[in-house]
Design brief:
single chain, about 325 residues, alpha+beta, four-stranded mixed β-sheet, 9 helices, transmembrane helix
Length: about 325
């Protein structure tokens, strides 16, 4: 059976005819690109042939000037025919423009010329503005009230001791009451004598108050306004008028104010809660240590100048130029 099958298969191979594959050939068929294939009926108009329904484009050639450049470029190179406005040599400067002069440059270096430039103005000039002390006032008032209450209780035990106490107990309460009264007074006086604002007032803009009339002979006066010790409404703040030579500082305050402003700007990167807690801690520390206050001597009396948050643009330079610095520079 197997031999018969092998012979039958060999017979088919001998008498088999080769299969011819006829290929379909089309004239002009170029299947290289889809756009050029006529077999797929993809016909594209040549770029030179105009589209159906489209208007023929006009070829515009730019006109050239005699110099060889196009008209647009030549118009740019030509000078403008409009006359340029020029100020006459003796004309007054335009209002609102800050034109530096030799006097202003010298006033930045020489304190005397700076004071004269302020005296020539027709309006007062604010040279210092203190930051807000509301949180400091609240902390000092609350702390002083608590310490004073404890001191009053200790004094009461000292004056009227209960029965059955040892002889040294009332004296201990008396000493504690005196210490508490001193600490409460120290904390209460933390907000006293703080300068709120300093204004340079020229002679032309000086008021006719009796305090200001005492210094009419000078060209420039300093109006020093103090913060109110108690926030009582309808009571004006205390003000004094002095000459710049009577405003004494031990050393310049501009470097310290610049450092404090840098610290303040860096603290703005943190969140509101972090800044509030940091400010609460700083004010609690300032209530005891007087940190951030510079001593100012005016008419043989000492006041406090806050250098932690000057709001003026000069950042303490105006104070250093006008004040009498009696210490080492």
């Amino acid at each position: 059976m197997s031999a018969f099958s092998r012979g039958y298969l060999l017979q088919n191979r001998l008498f088999a005819r080769p299969v011819q594959v006829e290929s379909l050939q089309l004239k002009g068929c170029q299947p290289r690109f889809f756009t050029s294939s006529q077999f797929l009926c993809a016909k594209v108009d040549p770029p030179s042939a105009p589209r159906r329904g489209a208007k023929p484009l006009k070829s515009t050639v730019p006109k050239k000037e005699p110099g060889g450049l196009p008209a647009k470029d030549a118009a740019i190179l030509k000078p403008s025919k409009l006359p340029t406005p020029q100020n006459p040599p003796n004309a007054a400067p335009t209002k609102g423009l800050a034109i530096p002069t030799k006097t202003l440059e010298l006033s930045r270096r020489n304190p005397i010329l700076y004071a004269e430039s302020l005296a020539q103005k027709s309006h007062p000039s604010i040279i210092y503005t203190a930051p807000s002390h509301t949180r400091l006032f609240f902390l000092c008032s609350a702390g002083a009230a608590g310490i004073m209450a404890q001191a009053a209780y200790c004094i009461h035990i000292y004056l009227l001791p209960p029965d059955g106490l040892a002889w040294f107990v009332p004296y201990s309460f008396g000493i504690g009451g005196m210490i508490g009264a001193g600490l409460g007074t120290w904390m209460m006086l933390s907000t006293s004598g703080i300068i709120r604002q300093i204004t340079a007032i020229p002679k032309k803009a000086m008021s006719t108050s009796p305090v200001a009339k005492r210094a009419q002979k000078l060209n420039l006066e300093l109006e020093v306004e103090f913060r109110k010790m108690l926030p009582i409404p309808f009571f004006p703040a205390r003000k004094i008028y002095i000459s710049p030579s009577e405003f004494g500082l031990h050393h310049p305050v501009a470097p310290q104010m610049q450092a404090e402003r840098f610290v303040y700007e860096e603290s703005q990167k943190y969140g509101a809660v972090s800044r509030a807690l940091q400010g609460l801690w700083n004010d609690s520390k300032r209530a005891w240590t007087r940190d951030g206050f510079e001593k100012v001597r005016i008419n043989s009396r000492t006041y406090k100048l806050d250098v932690t948050g000057d709001q003026s643009p000069d950042v303490g330079h105006a104070i250093d130029k006008l004040a009498n610095i009696y210490g080492k520079r």
